[in-house]
């Protein structure tokens, strides 16, 4: 056919209402470049391209077109026909890593920026944060693009080598000599110019049908399939499915994969390639796709005709290739015989128009959702970053010093005592303040000491089973008698036993006199029992203080570095607490040694209790012996007003106040100068008792116990508090500084080592920062849409 005839055919095709192809190099007016599309939609496409530039597609599902197909399905030729550039073909590296094309129409000169996006490392493991690196300077001549892409692909397939080394002009290494056969890292092309359609898509490696098509065997087959799946599984991915007409449709796995992730065909656009290679007589089978009768898709099937291998070797131009495509569909049956409505599904120009329309509609629908997803993702990223431990300081020594001062101040506050309601820091079950948690141990100690009360009985052992014994009423009124466990019968000391010991202790004393050694022996026996509960309290308080110190260390230092500082401080304070415990135990032992010799300058208190216990024991014995006086005294103590009443009679018509019984005796004794007597004192008027001396010894020991146990019940907790509780806070800052060594010549190095955070935490922090940065950058791009 002559060139004139070619021109006639092109003009006829252009004038046809069912076709929308263009001729020559100028294919502006296709897709979003068509003026019929609103300026707003053009801006939205530019926005999505800018969003892709931020790398936010790692986090947000951005609208994108993914070109998939089997190897040799004609994908590369299709990409060339859409983009207007030439892709490397010699070794097939074009199909071994994704090639992302972001096309945009502009009034400026044609240009192409080639970049490399790294998403996996040399071992194929995810980087966590995509790395975008521009590969060489901006290109302004289309002829240079093919070589630049080839070099970029080789750089990706040789990840251990410096990327810039592949830009050298003397790069003559064969493309087949690569370290990996396939990669998830991609080449990115940003192409703009007056002859460029507004479109974005990604050409993915061709699916491998068998091991013979792969250097890496099954691993490469799985790698490519997983890579393709990672793109097309996203709801906002438009699947551009290329199917070569020279191969049986059933044998092309790309369709099965597309249908798996888009079963309803809502986001898949099918493209039949190589229609000139359909075996004779099988054309009708492929026409069913164009008519959407077979494997129907919402956006239909298209058919394109790309240059043959011979045409490519001869250097066919883009415009000439489009002319040949138009002539093929206009003059070749059965394509030329299709109804007008189906003619719009033939030719590259119609495909680009449909792709542009579908992409722009998806962008318009997705943008509001993307804005919401971005805001949510930004908040999540910010919260995740905020939840991480504080970032290491550039001046770790100052930061550690500040932490130590805050810690010691907090420790001092807890040692002084914090109200229980203010203890929310340590969570449920840990709310009690330090002093509150120590108090049960102190109370247990007090009860244990009080339980050593000498259990004297003012009657003989033979009467022990028939007598009842009541606690002294004056102890109850003073709330001195604590609830304690019942003592064993063997702990009871009867009156005759006391007298026996006293008699055995006599040496050269005159008759009726007994040595003080008897009282001392009873007292020493009691004091021996105090050491065990005192040491138990020491250890109990130490455990409480130790636990609270650990809680405070965790609170103040757990998020610093990798925990080395917290670990060292815990060890230092453990040793410090051990020293405090030893001092407390030493003080307790010293106090108990003081009690070895009975002593008290509190003579009034001692004498008062001695008198009370003497009267109590004597009265109890007398009552047991049947004396009515003690019963009368008890009755009076229970109801003193009963013996003081108004008596009315004929002799005393006006009534006079009459006293009877105990009240009358006490009043009479007061009249003769014996002032201040109490009902219990009347028991002393009873006749002498052969057990008098034993009762006196009982009263001496019991009275001294009241004085001594109160003293010990206060002094030992005070000593423990001073040496162990307040002791842990005393000089603790100096101890920490000294043991940590941060003020020495190596202080800066020590602080730096302790401030290092774990590589995992550092990587997570860096990842979150980069994620937050790209999310905020993407959000800024979205805001610019309305500007």
UniProtKB/TrEMBL annotation:
Domain GED: 694-787
Coiled coil (UniProt feature): 758-785
UniProt-listed Pfam families: Dynamin_M, Dynamin_N, GED
Span of domain Dynamin-type G: 59-368
Keyword Nucleotide-binding: yes
Disordered: annotated segments: 1-35, 456-475
Key words of the record: Coiled coil, GTP-binding, Hydrolase, Nucleotide-binding
InterPro entries tied to this protein: Dynamin (IPR022812), Dynamin_GTPase (IPR001401), Dynamin_N (IPR045063), Dynamin_stalk (IPR000375), G_DYNAMIN_dom (IPR030381), GED (IPR003130), GED_dom (IPR020850), P-loop_NTPase (IPR027417)
Domain of life: Eukaryota
Example GO molecular function: GTP binding
GO cellular component, one term: microtubule
GO terms of biological process kind: endocytosis; intracellular distribution of mitochondria; mitochondrial fission; peroxisome fission
PANTHER family: DYNAMIN, DYNAMIN RELATED PROTEIN 1, ISOFORM A
Protein name (record): P-loop containing nucleoside triphosphate hydrolase protein
Native organism: Crepidotus variabilis
């Amino acid at each position: 056919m002559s060139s004139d005839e070619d021109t006639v055919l092109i003009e006829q095709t252009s004038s046809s209402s069912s076709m929308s192809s263009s001729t020559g190099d100028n294919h502006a007016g296709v897709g979003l470049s068509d003026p019929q599309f609103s300026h707003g939609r053009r801006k939205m496409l530019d926005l999505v391209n800018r969003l892709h530039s931020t790398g936010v597609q790692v986090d947000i599902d951005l609208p994108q077109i993914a070109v998939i197909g089997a190897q040799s399905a004609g994908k590369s030729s299709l990409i060339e026909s859409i983009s207007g550039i030439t892709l490397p073909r010699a070794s097939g590296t074009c199909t071994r890593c994704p090639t992302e094309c972001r096309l945009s129409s502009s009034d400026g000169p044609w240009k192409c920026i080639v970049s490399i996006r790294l998403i996996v490392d040399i071992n194929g493991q995810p980087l966590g944060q995509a790395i975008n690196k521009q590969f060489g300077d901006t290109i302004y001549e289309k002829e240079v693009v093919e070589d630049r892409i080839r070099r970029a692909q080789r750089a990706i397939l040789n990840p251990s080598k410096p990327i810039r080394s592949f830009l050298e002009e003397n790069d003559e290494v064969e493309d087949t000599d690569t370290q990996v056969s396939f990669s998830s890292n991609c080449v990115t092309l940003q192409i703009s110019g007056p002859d460029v359609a507004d479109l974005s898509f990604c050409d993915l490696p061709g699916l491998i049908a068998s091991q013979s098509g792969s250097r890496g065997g099954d691993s490469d087959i799985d790698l490519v399939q997983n890579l393709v799946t990672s793109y097309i599984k996203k709801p906002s991915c438009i699947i551009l499915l290329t199917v070569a007409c020279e191969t049986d449709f059933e044998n092309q796995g790309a369709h099965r994969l597309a249908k798996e992730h888009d079963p309803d065909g809502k986001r898949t656009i099918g493209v039949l390639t190589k229609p000139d290679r359909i075996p004779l007589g099988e054309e009708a089978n492929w026409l069913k796709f164009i008519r959407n009768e077979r494997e129907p898709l919402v956006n239909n099937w298209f058919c394109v005709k790309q240059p043959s291998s011979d045409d490519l070797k001869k250097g066919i131009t883009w415009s000439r290739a489009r002319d040949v495509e138009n002539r093929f569909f206009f003059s070749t049956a059965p394509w030329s015989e299709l109804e007008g409505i189906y003619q719009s599904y033939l030719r590259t120009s119609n495909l680009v128009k449909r792709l542009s329309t579908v992409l722009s509609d998806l962008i318009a629908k997705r943008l509001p959702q993307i804005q919401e997803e971005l805001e949510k993702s930004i908040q999540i990223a910010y919260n995740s970053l905020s939840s991480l431990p504080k970032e290491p300081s550039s001046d770790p020594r100052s930061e550690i010093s500040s932490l130590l001062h805050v810690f010691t101040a907090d420790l001092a506050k807890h040692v002084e005592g914090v109200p229980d309601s203010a203890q929310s820091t340590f969570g449920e079950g840990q709310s009690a303040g330090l002093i509150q948690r120590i108090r049960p141990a102190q109370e247990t100690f007090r009860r244990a000491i009080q339980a050593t009360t000498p259990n004297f009985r003012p009657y003989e052992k033979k009467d022990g089973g028939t007598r009842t014994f009541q606690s002294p009423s004056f102890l109850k009124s003073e709330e001195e008698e604590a609830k304690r466990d019942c003592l064993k019968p063997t702990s009871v000391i009867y009156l005759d036993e006391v007298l026996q010991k006293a008699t055995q202790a006599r040496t050269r004393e005159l008759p009726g006199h007994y040595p003080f050694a008897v009282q001392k022996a009873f007292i020493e026996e009691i004091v021996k029992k105090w050491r065990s509960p005192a040491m138990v309290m020491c250890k109990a308080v130490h455990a409480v203080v130790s636990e609270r110190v650990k809680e405070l260390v965790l609170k103040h230092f757990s998020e610093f570095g990798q925990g080395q500082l917290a670990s060292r401080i815990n060890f230092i304070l453990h040793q410090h607490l051990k020293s405090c415990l030893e001092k407390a135990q030493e003080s307790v032992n010293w106090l108990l040694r003081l009690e070895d010799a009975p002593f008290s300058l509190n003579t009034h208190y001692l004498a008062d209790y001695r008198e009370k216990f003497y009267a109590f024991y004597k009265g109890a014995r007398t009552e047991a012996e049947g004396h009515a006086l003690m019963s009368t005294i008890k009755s009076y103590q229970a109801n003193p007003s009963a013996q003081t009443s108004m008596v009315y009679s004929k002799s005393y018509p006006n009534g006079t106040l009459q006293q009877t019984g105990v009240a009358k005796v006490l009043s009479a004794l007061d009249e003769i100068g014996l002032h201040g007597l109490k009902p219990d004192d009347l028991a002393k008027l009873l006749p002498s008792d052969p057990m008098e001396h034993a009762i006196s010894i009982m009263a001496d020991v019991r009275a001294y116990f009241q004085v001594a146990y109160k003293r010990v019940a206060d002094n030992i907790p005070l000593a423990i508090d001073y040496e162990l509780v307040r002791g842990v806070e005393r000089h603790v800052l100096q101890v920490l500084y000294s043991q940590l060594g941060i003020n020495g010549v190596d202080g800066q190095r020590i602080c730096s080592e302790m401030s290092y955070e774990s590589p995992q935490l550092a990587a997570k922090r860096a990842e979150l920062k980069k994620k937050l940065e790209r999310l905020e950058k993407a959000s800024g791009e979205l805001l610019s849409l309305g500007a």
